[in-house]
Structures are given as C-alpha cells and as structure tokens.
C-alpha cells in the first residue's frame, strides 16, 4: 500500500538541544534487551540498501559469545548517485556515533570502527574531534567502547560488508563466502556488526522519539523515513528525508523537471522505472533502497545510461568470481555489439538470460544486482538499445 | 566428533557431520559435481561458481564447495537451472580464454577443456573478452606463465601462500583487469620464487607450466657426435606410468630404462647412484659436524645440519633465512653430483671427451631446471647438467618416440653410475633421505645395522608436515666413542610452510635437532612440481607406497654397500669429504633478499 502522497519529514536531521550524547545516556538507563526490542519494534531496516531488519541483526550480535566484539559503521558510500551518508557525517556525526555506541551497549561490543571511503578523508579531522568528545562522554557514562576511523582505498566492492572487513584486515577487498556471516566471524574472526551510517543515525533517533512514533511513518512494509540522494534532471537535487512508501508519480511530481522519462531507484545496483510504471511503482516496496535516486528526462539516451552503468560494473567487480568478472564485460560488450549491428537484436535476450544467471550464481551482491538495472533498462527501453 | 545432520541430495538421503560442505556430502554418495577452483590440498575459494547446486526454497544457486550442507534440506545437482547456469559459467570462462587448445602444452589434460567438452559449450555464444597482446613470461628457467590461459581460480595463489609460504603469486587489479600477478608484475625470474612448481601442479589449465627443454634433448640425441647420458630420479619411476596409461602407483622402472635406450640415449644411468653417494658424503658431513661441535667445541660449525637435495628448499632458505645458510649441508643434490661426475669420472672411465657428453636429468621437479642453470654448477669444467626435464616432459617424449611402452621389456640400468640401493630409492618420498642417512650413519658409527625391523625406520615416514625421531647411539666403534650414549634428534619436514616452522625455531635458537631433512614439495619428490597432473593426497600416498615397495625389492638397502659406490671411492674419490669430493660434490650457497 502506498501513502496517499509524498511527505517530507524531519527526523534524522532535526536538532536536539540537550547535552552531548544525552540520548546515549538515557538509552543506557534501559535494559539492553529493551533497547533491541525498541529497534525491532520500530521496523528499522538497514539503510545501506540491503534492507535487513536492524533490530534482529543486533539481537543476533548480542547473542554472540566472546569478549571481543566489533561494531563497524559502513561509511564506504560508493553507490553511484548516493551522497546522504556524507551529509550525515558532516552535519550530524554525533547521531551516527551515538547510534554506534547504542549498538555497542546493547550488543556488548567494545570496539568500533568507522570505515570511511577514501574520497571522504577530508572529513577525518572533524570526525576525530567529535570522537574525542565522544570518548570523554563514554568514559563518563561507564561505556567501554572506543571508536577508530579506518580509511578505505576506493573500491566499490568494499561497501560489501565482508569485502570491507577483508580490506580492514589488510587484505585484498574481496567478498568472503557466507556463511559464516560477520556477526559470527567478522573482523579478525570475531563477531562483528556492520551497519550503514544512516542506520546508526536512525537508531539514535528511534531511541529519542520512540518506536511507536517512528513506526507511524511509512507503510506496513517499510517503516519510518529515509534519506534520498536525488540527482539527475531535477531542479531540487540534494538530500531529502521522505516518508517511505510513496508512489513514483508523486516523487516525480515533486522532484522531476516536468519531462521525466525514467527514475533509477537504489543506485546502479537498483531498478530503472519507466514513465509507464510511475503510477503503480512504490519506492521501497519489494525493492529496498539505499536512497540513491537518479532522474532522467527525455533528452537522455538510456543506452548511454546503461553503458555507463556497465562500464562501472566491469571496472568495480572485484574480479574473483566468474559470473561477475566476465558477465559484466559480456553485458557491456554485448550492448555495444547490438548497437553497432554486429550482433542481432535477439542477442539482447541472451544477455538478459546471462544477467539472470549472474543474479543466481554470483558470490556477492555486486554481481547479483547487475541484472536489476540491466533487465529493467533493456526491457523498457529496448528500441533505444538497438537504434 | 561433531553433530551428525542429514539431508537429501538428488533424492538420496545422506548423513554427514555438521559443517561438511554440500560438495563433500555429494561426493560421499558418489554424486559428481564439477569444480574448477576447488582443490582438496587448498582452502576453499568459491570463485569459479561451476559447482553451483539448487537448494530447495532458495532462488539463488549455492556454490557447493563453500556452502555447509544444510540440515533437512533437499539439494538438486542436476536440474535444468543448474545445468544452464554451469554451462553459461563455463562459456564465460571460455570467452576469456585463449582457446588455441591444439597447441597448448596441457591439451587433453586441462580441466577447463574437460568441462567445456562435457557441457558442449558454444565458443561463439559470447564475444571474446580475452585481452589482446598478452605475452608469455618465459623469463624463469623453471616456470612459464601465460595469462591468456588463466581462469583466475587462484589455486596457484593459494598454493604459494598456504602450502609454501612464499607468496610469489597474488591476485592483482580488479574487475576486467583482475589477474594473477607476481610482485610488482615483475618477470618471474626477478621475484622471490623457489621454482618448486607446486602452482604448476595445481593449475587447472595451461596458464602455469614448466619451461620445456625436450626439443634440445632430441637435438642432442640426434647428434652423432654427442654422447647423451640420462639419469632418472627415484620418484620418476613410480609416477611416469600415470602418463602412459598405468594405474597410479605403478612402478615402471624396467620399461622406463628400455624406453630411454630405444629413444637413442647412449647411456641410461640412475640418479639413485648419486643419491647413495649423497648419503655417504652427507652422512660423513653430519658426523664431522657432530665431532666439531661436541668434541672440538667449534662454534663456527652449525647444528642442526639440514639436507640440501631439494633445490626449491635451497632457494627458499637463501631468500627467507639468508643468515642461516651455514645449516645447509654443503653437499650438492644427487642431480648435480651426477652431472659433475658424468663429465669427470664417467668421461675418464669411458674414455669420452667430456665436451661431447650431454648430461640430461629426468626429474619430478621444476626447480631442478633452475638448479642446473645455477652459475656455480660447472665444477666439471662444463655445464654439469645440460638439461633438466620433468616427468611430464619425459612422458611426452616417450609418446613422441612412438614407443609401445606397455609392451617394452624390462631392462637394467647401464654401468657405471647405474647401480643403486633401496636407500637411494626412498629419496623420492618425504623422510627418505633421513631414513637412508640413518641406515648408513648408524652402521658406520656402530658397525651394526639400525635397530629397526627390516631397516624400516617408520618414525620418519608418513604424511605429517613435521615428524621427529630420537635415536640413542650405543655400542660405538672406538673411532666414534664421543657419540656413545648420545641421543640423536632428527626431524623431517615437507612443504615449505613446514620448513619455515623448522627455520623459525633455528633462527630463535630453540631448535633441539641435530639433523633435519627438508623437501620443498608436499610428500617429497613424489609430489614434486614436475610430476604428472593432477596431484592430491591419495595420489601421493600411492606413489609413496610404490617407492617403499621398490626399496623392499632391492637386494642392497644401505648406501655404503652399493658396490659402485665402494668402487668410486677406491678408484676416484679416495675418501668421503676428501679433496676431490670437495671440488666436485660440494657447493656453496648465495644469500638472497626478499625484494
């Protein structure tokens, strides 16, 4: 069920004037289990894009034995078209850090890392300064939790949590086989909770406003609000916090330039929605999103758009598994060959079939998700692929 | 033991321990799932995705090599969805591959070729994404690397890292540019590589091969002015058969000798002869070192002494522990002793000008090629060994010669330098050099054979990475009185991972051993980098068993009783560690760096 209309909300960025880390202090007065219950109750899902229910992840983590447990904030924001995590780290780093600390408190973890993408290194001095304040308060509150910043080196695949952990261990950033999941064996083989920047910030605000209030936003399937990084042919580019469950038509009406042809939801790993589906498609329903939303108007060639995506994938695949490494190259070369007339247009069907094989056989989310944009663009804009 | 779980594979119930992979569970009930990146000697990778299977209720296919068998679930290994996915994955690999199979050294022994045939993949299904202009790296004397044949399974990377602790190879770059690279992408001869060839043994395709020299050998054989002598290492005779249609672990010594003769080799000799000689020289070196340390308190002499027969190991210690080269026995390897003697002693005895002698070694080894080319290996005044071939190259030569190998008669090695003992034969298996040395050293010191049934020192045999034994020396002959009552601690290590453990102890000053045998390759020479492909624990065990059978079948089983050995000391060398020995049979080592 969609909402009646698009609603802008202001939860995540709303200022709170209380003393530093007041939400953390108040949250720490609650039972650990009650904190996790609250997060479960809120319906919060991972805001990086995969959409795993955050509270359940925390519960699994809390149940892991061991006195060395890690909390990692995934700030490797690499999905093309997303820039909301940067805004959070610039404007409300305290909410992000509070979220990490709340997670650490609730799951008995004692060490935290912010995995910051290499391009965001300029944020380090400000973050370090905030961490000094945090550590001071953590000590005051009796919370044994230290946070360090780890600077990534710029590979897209390192946003995948196990590749991220590999890279932190000084290895090549390649996804691991799962199971074991990071919650079981993560950084240095210890239980590790990895959440997105926005997930932590949202968790902080849930602790502040309460699960019930948070849950009053959104739909039955998608609760709360979400940050959207809006780019492309839009007069209102930027980060916007919106209630989940809006129809694309409402979204386009608000953010489009009046000539919107297609909307790419969830970055290049997401889906491309053509105009004919604007009325029926609902953002976030059946397709969780990290919030990267690109708007294309009728002047754009969808062939060029797809070509650009595929070039990106062919370069950013880690290269270890066959379907992703070679499949991305085949899709790229394949649409080029069809466009040039070197392959018949029916070859597009072979490529769609290949992309579906990539979805079910690739090792990690990168290769598995290429099919989303590929199929949705090729099927909906087939004539643009050929002529 | 962990908990048992049960599941169904293709409708068949199977019980396995929790944590068992789907692949292992399937193999247990003889359900064959194809693999490429998987190798039982190595950790799981899950890269190639050829082994995918369907798990009921999951949309995604699971890579069976890295997915734990799920309790109570139904697995399907042969559905349309699975077959289609595998076929597409193999097609993708083919599209990235240099498919000039007819001219590939691994033609008919290639795992990608087998799978492509099995799935009857259409080579034109996808466009070629093979990078143009890839060059074969032929810089190394031992190993060739052809990236156009590489399927990025990373078996070589895992071999070099896990089994050998050398890390000469690694995955580099990402996406379409991802490749297997050496350090800084330098040529193979400039990086830290021990030339062990274990990567070659595990490469599923022709991306990594040994550098081949058999054409030069044919040329020499065909040259009437040249006198070609060939020597074969002990482990060749128990593995060569695999290339020629025999069961694994079949001994083909007699036929092998006949084949060489029929190929036109002038003199068919045995590396085992110089293996026996190594035992005499090395055994005496050990006793001398013990005397210098225990009696003369000479602190410049290093204990433990470590064997030096394995050229991969020698290069490893030169790179990794250059400050501890004093522990290596100064004895040349049997191959190099043979080479020197073939152009001195043999030439003299036969009245042949050494410049006309071409000395060829047939070895289970890739590193022997490098060893033969070491600049210092020319004590005869000539290149001591002119070419080192692998068992694989030799098998190919037999095929090229058109010989009906299975129907060849068995014949004996030529003389001189063709006689050997069981002690020399067991050089081919890990622990063999140690056992051979103990058989002789004990007899020299006490005048009695080693106190083990049938001379079989089983404590140093086996497959554990490091094995140790202690032998109490009692009833010494007067000359060796200083050893009376002493306990000799010995150790055996195979695989360079284990060699590193041994060396770390030595470097830390905590080693309790007097004598250590190290072989670079897992299993020793029977698992060498020049042996027939594939390799796994079962194959190595069968070859090892054949080696010990060959030993038991020999009338003489102690090196010092080899009549040709007795004769060479009488006629030529005079005494172990004597002047001539030092000139011809001993060598020195080169400290190298980690770049």
Q: What would you say this structure looks like, in words?
A:
The complex is a heterodimer of chains A (387) and B (595). With 387 residues, chain A is α/β, with parallel strands linked by helices. In chain A, 44% of the residues lie in helices and 14% in strands. Chain A folds into two domains: 22-215, 3-Layer(aba) Sandwich (Rossmann fold), CATH 3.40.50.11540; 302-386, de novo design (two linked rop proteins) (Up-down Bundle), CATH 1.20.1440. Chain B has helices at residues 22-28, 80-95, 111-118, 155-163, 198-202, 214-222, 253-263, 271-294, 311-320, 334-342, 345-350, 367-372, 391-400, 422-425, 432-446, 496-508, 537-552, 563-573, 579-585; strands at 4-9, 12-17, 52-55, 62-63, 74-76, 143-145, 169-172, 179-182, 208-210, 227-232, 267-270, 305-306, 357-363, 387-390, 466-472, 487-494, 515-519. In chain B, strands 2-1-5-3-4 form a five-stranded mixed β-sheet, sandwiched between helices. In chain B, helix 7 links the parallel strand 10 and strand 11. The radius of gyration of chain B is 25 Å and the shape is globular. The interface between A and B is large, with 37 and 39 residues.
